[in-house]
Input
Amino acid sequence: MIKGKKGQKNRIRNKRWRVGVIAISILMSLVVLLYTNTVISKIRDSEQEKITLWVNAVGHKAQLVQATEAFFRGVDLDERRKMELYTQVLNSFNQIAPGSDADFSLAYISYIVDSSKTSFVIMNADSVITNCSNYTGDPELDRALIGTKMTPEDIASFSRNEAVHYSIWGMEMILLYKESEIYEELQAFLDNLNRSFFSDITNNSVFVPVIMVDSTRQSVIDFGNIDPMQFSTAEKLAKKLHAMERENDPLELILPNNQRAYVYYESTPLLKQMRYLPYLYVLISVIVLLVSVVLLRTARSEEENHMWVGMAKETAHQLGTPISSLLAWVEYLQDKPLSEPYISEIHKDLDRLDMIARRFSKIGSIPELKEENVCEVVNNTLLYLRPRMSKKVSFVNNIPNEPHYAMINAILLGWVIENLCKNAMDAMEGAGTFSVTVSHVGKYIYIDCSNTGRPIPSKQQKYIFESGYSTKTRGWGLGLSLAKRIINEYHKGEISLKSSTQESTTFRIKLRSSR
Output
């Protein structure tokens, strides 16, 4: 048990220690939160930088694909022009008389065509080969095919490019051609580039969720790193694209088929999860802090409960024996020559001792509340205390005659008034004025106990209702703590220090009226 000034210092020291622990916990939580938020910000910036690099790479690669496609269109047009030029040279033979020497012109144009490695076949209307070059890859085999007839399958192999029709010396001729070897190699490179381009978009190394749609934005061309169930219907697709567009502007691309496409993308799942990590940490920190505070308060409350119950039961036990003995002596002395006033006083003190015992016994259990006249309870307490106090103390009774009713336990409420009165006597040091005022305002009944004497220092006012706190050298520091327990917990009311000045100190009790 904490006593006197030493107990007061220990109490303040313990409270400061608990406040210090909570403050250190809060500070550590803030430091860890700040550090975690800094790390998350760095990771988020790194993720965003990767996404930005990926977006730029996609844009640059799209430009490369567009440029390559344009180049191939030019090469394809050049191939067509060479074939048309070749037929124009052959058409020019119509102006030369049969039997004339045209070997030079034909050799020249054949050299141009052969140098480009373009594969072509010239056949007549009956599909008989009259000339071919780079068809089989072997000049000897090409010459051996002259005079043979083309099969429908052979003709179909040249179907990619439109045939060139011309006539020479009245005979209808057909030129079929394929791309050159260089063109074929470049075309394979373009196909690989296109496949790589789509793969880089939909299966990117930074795991960015991507949806590629056509120019109508209603048909999905490809997707990657995303659950297809999120856009399995037209409504879901429109909703998903709208959500992605709110986060990032879509990329506009020109596909190899010269069609326009749009790439929608959003942050990586890891980046999305990290956004909520600081809030989750704050929530966990708050929960841990609240649990710690609750456990601390619960432990403190349990400790106080054990202290109160133990003290109450021990007090009731200690008072039980002398009370029983005194009661027996009273019965014995009633038949002896003892004056009635003495017997009456002995009865009063015995009743008082019995009341004290019942007071302490009620601390360990929930007291029974009854509708009582508060004015009567307060007045009876003062009538008992007044003749037992110093004659230098002036009592001022501001208790109205009309009753004010509330649900109370008369024994415990009288104990609170008695404690406030005794504290007032100590503060006045045996001389001064003690006044009690009872008022009924609205739904509440107020009991104001005021006294002159030394005020309570402002630094100590917040500790006066704590158990173990006392300004007296031999005090237990339980009076006001018991009063607070009785009023706040048992009666669901409120006791507080209304004011404390050089002129007077006032404590107020607030109870809910029952009428």
In short: Confidence is low (pLDDT under 50) at residues 1-7. The longest strand covers residues 432-441.
